[in-house]
């Protein structure tokens, strides 16, 4: 962890974005498999990218909602380990969800469901705020300084 004057490294930023996005979809896949996979006979990408599956009117829709929100919590943990700076958490969270929005638009069209927007907005806020909280706790830890010199 280097907190001094940071040199702008676009390759590091791109690598962090790609890694965070891959971990987001990997975790979403695990949660969707656990929650939705037990309820439906055929799993598909519809549960990842189609806004119509994010609904509060069915139990399967609630399972998709729970998967998205739990993935946001996991994403905060990923940011804690990958990004390590509280001031960057909102940027990386927004990037993950903007890329997700673009993929959803390509897959199923513009999300016209208010539930989709509320769930993903809540997921974005949850990922950013929890990631910032975790990173701030690390940044504010006391630096251990030994009292006595060792005789080396």
UniProtKB/TrEMBL annotation:
Q: Which InterPro entries match?
A: Integral_membrane_SYS1 (IPR016973), Integral_membrane_SYS1-rel (IPR019185)
Q: Which Pfam family is one of those matched by this entry?
A: SYS1
Chief location of this protein within or outside the cell: Golgi
From which domain of life does this come? Eukaryota
Keywords, comma-separated and alphabetical: Golgi apparatus, Membrane, Protein transport, Transmembrane, Transmembrane helix, Transport
Q: Name one GO biological process term.
A: Golgi to plasma membrane protein transport
UniProt topology in membrane: Multi-pass membrane protein
Q: Which GO terms describe its cellular component?
A: cytosol; Golgi membrane; trans-Golgi network
Where does the protein end up?
Golgi apparatus membrane
Q: Which residues cross the membrane?
A: 12-36, 56-80, 92-110, 116-136
Q: Which family does it belong to?
A: Belongs to the SYS1 family.
**This chain belongs to which protein, by name?**
Protein SYS1 homolog
| UniProt organism field | Citrus clementina
Source lineage: Eukaryota, Viridiplantae, Streptophyta, Embryophyta, Tracheophyta
């Amino acid at each position: 962890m280097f907190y001094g004057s940071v040199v702008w490294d676009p390759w590091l930023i791109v690598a962090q974005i790609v890694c965070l996005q891959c971990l987001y979809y990997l975790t979403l896949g695990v949660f969707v498999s656990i929650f939705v996979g037990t309820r439906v006979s055929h799993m598909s990408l519809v549960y990842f990218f189609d806004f119509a599956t994010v609904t509060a009117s069915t139990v399967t829709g609630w399972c998709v909602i729970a998967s998205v929100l739990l993935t946001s919590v996991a994403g905060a943990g990923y940011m804690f380990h990958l990004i390590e700076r509280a001031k960057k958490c909102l940027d990386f969270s927004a990037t993950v969800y903007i890329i997700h929005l673009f993929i959803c638009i390509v897959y199923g069209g513009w999300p016209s469901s208010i539930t989709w927007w509320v769930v993903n907005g809540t997921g974005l806020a949850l990922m950013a705020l929890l990631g910032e909280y975790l990173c701030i706790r690390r940044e504010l830890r006391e630096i251990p300084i030994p009292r006595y010199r060792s005789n080396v």
